[in-house]
Amino acid sequence: MPHNSQNKVPFYIHIAYLFIALLLGFALLSGWNQYQATSVILKQSADRQFRLTAQAALEEVEGIYKSGALTTQLLAQQRLMYAKTLAERLDSLGFISTSLSNNPAVGAQFIGYDTGDFFMVSMYRGHAAIQKRFNPPNGTRWIVQSITHPAGQIRGEYLFYDDQLKLIEQRIDPNYQYDPRVRDWYKAKATPGQLIVGQPYYFASSGLVGITFSQQTSNQLAVAGSDLQLARINEFLLQHQVTPDTRLALLDHNERVIASHSGTPKLITEADGQSRLPKLFSYDAPVLKAFLNMPQGKADNASTFASEHGEAWEGLARTIQLPNMSQMQLVMAVPHRELLAAAIEERNRSLLMSLLLIVLGVLVAIWLARKASNPINALTEEIQKIEQFQFDDPVQVETNISEIARLASSLGDMKTTIHRFMELSQALAAESNFGRLLARILDELGAVSLAEGGVIYIHHDDGHYLEAAQYFWQSKAQTSPEHVATIDLNGEHIVAQALRNDEVLRSVSPDTFHHAFPLLPATEKNFTQLTLPLRNRDGTLVGALALLIDESRKPSADLLAFVQTIAATAAVAVDTQRLVNEQKILLEAFIQLIAGAIDAKSPYTGGHCQRVPELTKMLARAAQTQTTGPFADFVLSEEQWEELHIAAWLHDCGKVTTPEYVVDKATKLETLYDRIHEIRMRFEVLKRDAEIRCWQGIAEGGDANALKTQLAQELATLDDEFSFIATCNEGGELMAPEKLEKLKQIASRTWLRTLPDRIGIAHEEKERKAREAEAPLPVIEALLADKPEHILIRSERDKLAEDNPWGFKVKTPEHMYNRGELYNLSVARGTLSEEERYKINEHIIQTIIMLEKLPFPRHLRRVPEIAGGHHEKMDGTGYPKRLKRDEMSYPARMMAIADIFEALTAIDRPYKKGKTLSEAIKIMGFMIKDQHIDPEIFSLFLSEGLHLEYAQRFMQPEQIDEVDITPYLV
Asked: What does the record list as coiled-coil region(s) (predicted)?
């Protein structure tokens, strides 16, 4: 049952499924494992980075506070505590500027004295508030603020220095009045040796929020301090943002915001009127509040939490405890999407790379699968070629897979075997020559089995013997045996024994070899005899094959199976060809039987049906040998020769339907007998009547001499008239008008019939006579009459319509026959009437009709055309189809010439003598001028000497005379 290949999947796709499934399975497992491991590693790495960042921020905050504390403690030990004037205090400007330069978080350092003096150095960084407050000159790097009390007066002034500590401007400000002793930071005076950290407040000098570190100087006469701007703390803290959306907050012990990601907090005035930093819970930091509200929000470890919007965050809170300072807390929160952004990006990049590798792997897998399946596809194409019987190209499959290579090799061997088997089968089926068929079988089977010799036997008709038909020895050309070697199937011959015992292989010694195979030369070698019975479809033995193989090369089981298969096919071919040959022999015998019967039917046709085929084939053979001229391309195949042979032998087979008395009509009045005898008897009656009248006249007393003289004259006239009619009956002379007139005069004589003419006759003749009433007896009748009874009416079956299926173009006479005596004797030339001549010519019509009814095989389909065209003329006036020269094949035109030449020269026509060679050629020369026969074929007939060759074989010596063929050559 055929399979629908449209719903099938190619093999390489199935292979790709396996590769892709394994690849995807491995990739998914590996990717999932990698994803899980990477996620854990990324989370751990992010947590570690987060903690490190928080630790760095913590350390940064601690460093800022420690820096403020340290600078304050150092200033408390510096000589500045002893300075009493501005000039003395400016001597420490280099120390303080160095300290501030190395402590960027500290904005200013100052010292307040018990006397109320105040000295402060701050670094100018272009802050807007400072700019607004002091309007420092260009190039200002350091601003010195000084309060002194010269002469009991308060002197406030500002000094502006550049980077090189060069004074740019000194500005006295009467409005600058400041008493450090009333400031909160000055309370350090009461706690010797202890560092005091004040609450955030607005610096008086700048208006910025900050924290002041203060400590009593060593001489206990002043308080040294350092201002730490919260904005600077905020700046340093923001440097430790892990991501752009990181939330940061530095809280004091009351959870007030010292610094945050939102910027430097501003002081708020609370209900008690005090300005303080805002608390976190009143500050805009919902994420940090959400973290601190969680149980783990107070822990020192990083924790994952969700914001109020459900987003995952990583939070961390760290406590800062510095000496002499209240506890602080650093709180940080980073969204996972940012904290793990780089890690996720790396992971995604890794997954994308894995995906790309998977896609590449899939493509490579498909490519490898397709490449791996290419040999199978190639094998499939080779199998399809075998299905389509295409065996020309060898099997070529490039593969490194040993199984496919072995399959390709086996397929190639199978293809070669099938090809050889098909070629042999076709050759055996196509071979039409029985001898060549046997030779081909012997040669092929000998070559396949590597046999050194062999004999093929054919079953004898009597059923008891095998006859050696062909043999070969050591690859020499096949040769038919010089004498027939027979084997009795019931005898002791080793081939007969092998056939009876179904022995395929049998050892043959040198002695046995010579006895068993006398047709083959003697040898001293030992052979293995391979015996193959040739049986037809019914299992009947039609022959046998004995192959002699060197004993050292015994055939394998596979080879034996192949050879036996070929032998079975060969047996069918032998049986078929033998049957075909027998049928051909039967057909040939039947053809010659018909031709012989036609010739035997009429002595006037003689050997016409045997001689015309010979002459026709002589012409065809001569035409086939031509290399130039009109016949240069004329070639007949073996089948066409058979076609020509059959057509030539059957060219007159329609004559079996032509009545003998028409074919053999030698006189004008002849039918089944020559009716001249009836006419003679009537003349005899007239002569008797004349004598009776003479003697009656004498008896009645008349003049005896006169009556006798009159009788003699009347008898002489009757004799002359009969002689004239007899001469007319022979048909040898042209009937001139005067002869026709004389014939009519003679016919007007009458005679007396006294006996009835409608008794003792056939029924058919009675019917014809019944066409007119019977006259009473005695009746006077004309000597020569054309009576109604002489007309034989043509039946409808014998009429040919103009559109007849055979294409005949002939004029059909009204009557089948007209046997009128006067009508027939009046025929102008020859002995045949119009109706009889049509009947004669009708034989070719019957020939065509009869042959077209026969189921000829394809290669014999032109037999009716060749056989039925030998009465056509080159000008289209012939019969029965009025074909012209170009409408006729060469064989048909050749047969026309053969038929005419044979008819002219035949010596077995009793009604005429055979023409001499020169007479026949001269007549045919006229026919050339009249365009009745082919001039080229007639020229070939003469130029090749075929007229002489035919004359030597079939003509009498006296007919062969000298003839000049030059005028007739084309």
From this structure: none
